[in-house]
Structure formats: C-alpha cells, structure tokens
Amino acid sequence: MHKVSIPQSVVDRVIARRGKEHIYEDLDPSRTALVVVDLQNAFMMPGIAHSPCATAPEIVPNVNRLAKALRATGGKVVWIQTAFTEESLESWSVMHEMALPARKAKRIEALSRGTKGYELWAGLDVLPEDLIVEKLRFSAFIQGSSNLEEILRSHGIDTVLVTGTVTSVCCESTARDAMMLNFRTVMITDGNAASTDEDHNGALIGFYLTFGDIMSTDLAMACLEKNAAKMAAE
C-alpha cells in the first residue's frame, strides 16, 4: 500500500481557498457513485499485464469495502474497463506513437475485447446491480471515450469517488474531467494505485489543490454512513 503523504502546507492552502479540509464530507450517498478505473488483468496480472502496477492488487480490499458501503447507502458502483480498438491506431495515433513497437503490441494484446487482460480482476466484488462501462481513452469522461457521463446523469449522480489504477494517469485524468463536467469529485487516497509513492502523492496533491477532494477509504465510508443516517432521520 502506498505511503500517503500530503504536506500540511497543501492542506492549509486548500482550507484557505475552501474554508474546510474536506469540501465534500456532506455528500449525498444516493447521488454518489464509486467509479473504479481499470482494475483489469491488463494492469495487474503477471504474464498478462502490458503495464503492470504492483500496488494495484493491494487496494482491492478497500475498493470492495467502498463498493459495499455505496450499495448499502443508496449509491451506485461503476466498474470501468479500458479497451483497445483498431480505430484508435488512427484516432489516437499520438499515444501509440509514443510507445516502442513491442510495448504497443503488448498493449493491444492485453486490452483487446475478449482477452484475459481485458477482464476485471477476479478479486473484485462485482455484483449484478453494478454498472460496467467501457472506455477508450485514459479519461473515462473525455469526449469519445465512453458514455459514463450520460449513465451517471441518468441515475441522478452528481458526486463521484474515484479509485483504481494508475493514480497519475487514468484515475487522475478521469477525476479531473469529472470536475470539469460539474461532478463533485473525490479521489480515494488508499483506493488508487501508482508505480511509486512519489507518482501517487504528486497526483493526489495536484488534484486536491484545484479540482476536488481527497479522502481515505475509512473517511469516505464514515461520510457515506453518517449522511445516509442523517437523511433517513429527516
């Protein structure tokens, strides 16, 4: 698990701007979705993964705990799967150009639909009532990547908790774009995984300062349960 380190100076800057450390601690559970990004074999399974993240399996218990808490408090759980498509060789050629030929071929093999790499990690507690959304770019929200925005709007969702891998790439891209599309957005500090602690913390800090909130799994669950109980009593 990553050693999360958010400097007090960063927290102080957030408080000076927003008036409190956690701007979304009063989130409405029934309008909240857990968005789980790319916890697929293509990023986690030895021998299959084209870009393995060694810390990704470590966050799975926290993701499952949050998923259970969201369902129990009236929210939604959304599992995101990245897919390779042939058309992306042209429409997203810049990304493919940046990879060595062998890495490009491995990515295509790992993320093609119907392959072992495309599948969600077996340790995830995926239930029939959950939503599964395919994306075609790093961000799940960018135009042409998926219909995630429309799906969330149709369920009355205005707040998203972002987990998954890699913190500084697909997760941060998804989280930033969620805020740009007017979703209240929280990145879960111990529910995201990156290659290094430095990458992980750098992404969280950059996001926290400008784009949204960051919370641990325990804090997010406490907020969900507290607010669900409060709303039930009203």
Features:
alpha/beta; globular; 10 helices; about 45% helix; Rossmann fold
Q: Explain this structure to me?
A:
α1 packs parallel to α9 (197-210) and α3 packs parallel to α10 (217-233). α8 links the parallel β4 and β5. The longest helix is centred in the first third of the chain and has 17 residues, at 56-72. The protein has 10 helices and 6 strands; from the N terminus they run αβααβαααβαβαβαβα. With 234 residues, it is of the alpha/beta class. Strands 3-2-1-4-5-6 form a 6-stranded parallel β-sheet.
SSE-based structural type:
alpha/beta
Provide the number of structural domains.
1
Order of helices and strands: HEHHEHHHEHEHEHEH
Q: Terminal Cα separation, in Å?
A: 39 Å
Biggest beta-sheet profile: 6 strands, parallel
Number of strands: 6
By CATH, the topology is: Rossmann fold
β-strand amount: 15-25%
CATH architectural grouping: 3-Layer(aba) Sandwich
CATH H-level superfamily title: Isochorismatase-like
Amount of helix: 40-55%
Spatial sequence of strands, sheet with the most strands = 3-2-1-4-5-6
Mean pLDDT: 95
> What spatial form do the alpha-carbon principal axes imply?
globular
Radius of gyration: 17 Å
Blueprint of the fold:
Blueprint: H1 8-18, E1 32-37, H2 41-44, H3 56-72, E2 76-82, H4 88-91, H5 93-97, H6 101-111, E3 131-135, H7 148-154, E4 159-165, H8 167-180, E5 184-193, H9 197-210, E6 213-215, H10 217-233
